[in-house]
Amino acid sequence: MQGHAMRAALNMQIETLGFLKHRYEQDLKLVDMLTGSDGFSDAFSACSNFWKETVNEYSDEAGKIVSISSKLAAEAASNVRKDAERIREELAEKSVA
């Protein structure tokens, strides 16, 4: 069970770091667009598109994290139930003996 939890935690970190890498790359693109823009209109458009995409991507990522977390919680609950059943059976066997 501990190995499974560690694996899940590492997968969560991989997902998060991949997302952050992508976001930093988008930040760099915005800087390039702003420094290369010809005027206010171009800069405004670049910022507007950047923030629209940013909000959408953070929203999507939050959904992924919630999905991963709920799967982990369901697996943990299942493991707890199995452990409780095993302990109950062991106690029942000891009380019979």
Explain the overall architecture.
- The protein is rod-shaped, with a radius of gyration of 24 Å.
- With 97 residues, it is mainly alpha-helical.
- The model has no long low-confidence stretch (mean pLDDT 89).
- The chain has two helices and no strands.
List the helices and strands and how they pair.
Elements: H1 2-36, H2 40-96
Quick structural gist:
The chain contains 2 helices and no strands.
Structural class: mainly alpha
Cα distance spanning the termini: 30 Å
Radius of gyration of CA atoms, rounded to a whole number: 24 Å
- Report the mean per-residue pLDDT as an integer: 89
Main sheet: strands, sense, barrel: none
Helical residue percent? over 70%
Features of this protein?
mainly alpha, 2 helices
